[in-house]
Amino acid sequence: MGTRIVVDYVLCQGHGVCESEAPGVFEVSKDHSVVVLSESPSEEHLAGVAQAVKYCPTHAISLVEDGDTSAAHDISSPTDNTASDEGVTP
Ligand code: SF4
């Protein structure tokens, strides 16, 4: 349903482009670590967040669908074998 922001803090180098594109959603502190102020941005912030995703120099920002299993269906494998991999004993 909602969209959630995920930041890869390993990739993030604190450039602050995200804060410029979406102030109020991202905040870069003095030690160059980014803080996501609103993980689930409102409609009004989505355009800025999309710009931040696009222009982040290290591509550290992702937008994922949150809690919408029907949307996730598009990117998930049609056959879910994850459960059958465990507990395989002869
Ligand atoms: S633009 Fe990217 S690299 Fe820069 S602070 Fe934001 S997430 Fe980190």
Overview of the structural elements:
It contains 3 helices and 4 strands; from the N terminus they run βαββαβα. With 90 residues, the chain is α+β, with helices and mostly antiparallel strands. The protein has one domain: Alpha-Beta Plaits (2-Layer Sandwich). The strands form 2 sheets. The chain has a two-stranded antiparallel sheet. A hairpin with a 5-residue loop joins strand 2 and strand 3 (34-36). It is globular and about 35 Å long. The N and C termini lie far apart (42 Å). The relative contact order is 0.24. Iron/sulfur cluster is lined by residues 7, 12-18, 26, 28, 34, 56-58, 60-61.
As a percent range, the share of strand residues is 15-25%
Q: For the CA atoms, what is the radius of gyration?
A: 17 Å
CATH architecture: 2-Layer Sandwich
How many distinct folded domains? 1
Concise overview:
By secondary structure, the chain is of the alpha+beta class. It is built from three helices and four strands; from the N terminus they run E-H-E-E-H-E-H.
Topology, element by element:
Elements: E1 2-7, H1 17-21, E2 26-28, E3 34-36, H2 43-55, E4 61-66, H3 69-72
Antiparallel strand pairs: 1-4, 2-3
The structure holds iron/sulfur cluster.
